[in-house]
Amino acid sequence: MQISEYELVRQVQGRHWWWLGREKIIETLVEKYIDTSVKLEIADVGCGFGANISMLRQYGDVTGLELNAEALDTVKSRWGDSVNTVNWQSPDPLAARFNFMLLADVLEHIPDDKEAVDWISEHLMDDGYTMITVPAHQFLWTQMDEVLHHHRRYTQETLLTLFDDRFEIVYCSYYNMLLFPVKVCFVMFDRLKQFLFPSAVKRSYNDVPPAFINSIFKQILLLESSFIRRGKLPFGISLVCLARKKASNTQSE
Question: Helix (H) and strand (E) counts for the chain?
């Protein structure tokens, strides 16, 4: 993403409804489907400034993989040696293996997403889990996607086709469903603005909204996390997928 966006993310991720709501959804699925009584070896792939690290540390030892040096420095300054940090860019190989790998809105930034899933398989222990969140639906593409250097948005079908028989799909669902009409209105506004002002500087609109709106939107995603605990959502602005790597002997059968 653009350098200016890294700075914006650093400023807002601890307060913005989107980051806080996504974190709760990730936490909900980890606690429902993964045995957290056993300490996990966790990779936060594309960890950024560490939005999910505090939550992940409940479950085991965390390694943050990130390309941006400033983001890595922020993680180091906050958690010191308690969180391992690695300067990483897909598909750089690692010596370490993990039993839980999180890619929270990372896959859409990687040019070859199939290669990225192959990389996950190579670095995931047998019976280990990977959780991936991505933006949904190409028709929701806006200048935000361009500023953030997204290569694509996904449907459930296009996301699942990345996983072959090395993986079992444990859970896959859309989320951010209740705010779907708001997103559609924003897409219409974005396209009208680009038509009327084609030379205007593009923005991600990731600023924290007014406190009242920020609080309502956060509560909506927290409510959706309770829906997700009980089942799946039929549509939404984003997707979340949890997959388990099958044991080697199972794969060969």
Answer: 10, 7
